[in-house]
TrEMBL record:
PROSITE patterns: TAT (PS51318). Residues 35-151 form the FAD/NAD(P)-binding domain. Residues 166-283 form the Sulfide dehydrogenase [flavocytochrome c] flavoprotein chain central domain. This is Sulfide dehydrogenase [flavocytochrome C] flavoprotein chain. InterPro entries: FAD/NAD-bd_sf, FAD/NAD-binding_dom, FAD/NAD-linked_Rdtase_dimer_sf, FCSD_central, FlavoCytC_S_DH_flav-bd, FlavoCytC_S_DH_flav-bd_sf, SQRD, TAT_signal. It comes from Thioalkalivibrio nitratireducens (strain DSM 14787 / UNIQEM 213 / ALEN2). NCBIfam families: TAT_signal_seq (TIGR01409).
Amino acid sequence: MTDLTRRSFLKAAGIGGMTLAAGWTAAARSSEKAHVVVVGGGSGGATAAKYVKRFAPEMQVTLIEPKATYHTCYGSNWVLGGHATMDDIEQTYGALKERHGVNVVQDTVTEVDPERRTVTTAGGATMNYDRLIMSPGIDFRYGAVPGITEADAERVPHAWKAGEQTVLLRRQLEAMPDGGVFVIVAPGNPFRCPPGPYERASMAAHYFKQAKPRSKILILDNKENFSKQGLFMAGWDEHYGDMIEWLPSSEGGQVEEIDVATLTAYSDGGFGEFKADVLNYIPPQQAGVIAQRSGLTGDGLWCPVDGKTFESTIHAGIYVIGDSCVAGAMPKSGHSANNQGKVAAVAVIRDLAGLEPETASTANTCYSLITPDHAISVAGVYAYQDGDIVSVEGAGGVSPAHAPAPIRRMEAIYTKGWYTGIVGDIWG
């Protein structure tokens, strides 16, 4: 990003914050007894719960999340590369409960009744809500490729929901012999964290270069291009030579079948055959299962929402944020979910007070490590226009091509700073 565009980005992001800050105090005062239930304690849900309570402390806010701890998907590739530990990407809910007054319930929502405005959990509880914010993340579409099912995730980990799967894939990489082949099957658009598969290849290469330098990484891609492609490929050439190979869909990357027993992926009607020592299949994706079960996806895979408020266009009173929703130009990322959580929090408060929604600007930043000292980034600013969320022309951008090493090193420092800042904003 040039200095000019970086200033433009920061300016626009600041305007977004000012827009959010205006007008909610009166709204909050007039809806003191409302109960807001938030489903899902990831980046979007935890942000929404915290900020509803922060902006309207009189309201009752309940966050329902099945896990006692949460591992961020962003940063999990660093664990795979041996550059971080699981403890480094673990978040907890203590601050939300004790500092912000959110009622955190460790349970799983199994049913949503939009007519009665209730949610039911696996533990048998039924809760009434005045407004419901859903942030259920993603679910996988395993049936899209023959030969592999969810039951095969132990042998062929996806590692696209951080946690045990991350640990499992790291162990497989550690056990792989020097000279082995690590195959990543990348999904088609849209999917969670668009630069993620390519940062994963980078971090695996960083590990292999030190521990097993004769190894190879092959990315079989169901797309023709990917996020920050030129920057990634230049970084791969600079640091890893020919260790990483990328095949787009038109050149044999479109995987059509997987043989789990032999860890082999097939493409081009069987003419493409790729045997792996470690196979990482990242399945195509859709909205989280509770969103589908609640009818929030309609006839599609993702949840349509009003881009101004993130209220569902199918069920009134339910707001859908994060990876599950269709958010116009915004990518499915942790930073997007964080911004959407704040917009939804304000929209819910104003809605309960009978006030018209405000129009907010939002932003997204995504850093990727190619080595621990070489990072690249992409940033965007978004506005609500004509019923949709669109990119603001001239704001944001990507890291400059051909930047010297100190710039890449500085971006690596920014990467860690960004992570510390955003998890503090969400769970701190």
